[in-house]
Structure to design on (238 residues):
């Protein structure tokens, strides 16, 4: 079984928690489950986060903790070696799942990591950008009906994004096998350019020669992306 999962959180720090999850499961190209749920892990949602995913504290007030949610039970029931959990940005998703007590024992595919390896020249790797860059939206209505999704598809809605992850997976599957994607999901990507910051778009190698202190400062950041950290260390070593 292929299980496509997306989450929304109360923020992006370690102390933040999951506040919604969306799951789409497929067997032999048939959609066998479509699940969406709000959960309350006891962490307030600040306005900045609500402005992104449109989930408010009032909306989760009476919702269960993640361990008591239907999606948690579903994931645990299918937490088997033969099943594959597919997410976009595993480095973000899995720490939050494990913090809630769910450690996945099956196979894992990270579509963001695979995409970085497969199309390194892509300008951005966020799900929202990729949806338009690769024109994934063209097949959304077809899969929306296939999976019985009745609500509108919206960015930063966990079920909508789970569908985009499915469409991205299908796009990558045209040229890469599932086995290759599993391998790439755990292989560091050597980035050529800074994705953000004052040197956004500039070559890391150039900055390593002209402003090494900036790279060293970035490496001290706790929330630094694994691929960026790997790349900074690579270029600092010359």
């Amino acid at each position: 079984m292929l299980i496509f999962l997306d989450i929304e959180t109360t923020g992006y720090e370690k102390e933040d928690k999951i506040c919604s999850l969306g799951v789409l499961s497929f067997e032999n190209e048939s959609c066998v489950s479509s699940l969406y749920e709000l959960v309350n892990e006891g962490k307030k949602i600040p306005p900045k986060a609500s402005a992104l995913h449109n989930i408010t504290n009032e909306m989760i007030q009476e919702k269960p903790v993640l361990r008591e949610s239907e999606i948690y039970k579903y994931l645990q029931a299918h937490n088997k070696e033969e099943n594959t959990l597919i997410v976009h940005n595993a480095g973000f998703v899995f720490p939050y799942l494990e913090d809630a007590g769910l450690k996945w024992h099956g196979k894992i595919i990270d579509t963001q990591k695979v995409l970085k390896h497969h199309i390194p020249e892509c300008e951005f790797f966020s799900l929202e950008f990729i949806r338009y860059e690769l024109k994934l939206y063209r097949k959304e209505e077809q899969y929306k009906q296939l999976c019985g999704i009745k609500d509108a598809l919206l960015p930063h809605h966990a079920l909508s994004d789970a569908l985009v992850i499915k469409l991205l997976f299908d796009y990558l599957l045209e040229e890469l096998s599932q086995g290759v994607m599993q391998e790439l999901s755990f292989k560091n990507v050597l980035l050529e350019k800074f994705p953000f910051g004052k040197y956004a778009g500039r070559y890391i190698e150039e900055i390593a020669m002209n402003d090494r202190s900036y790279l060293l400062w970035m490496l001290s950041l706790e929330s630094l992306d694994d691929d960026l950290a790997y790349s900074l260390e690579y270029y600092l070593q010359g």
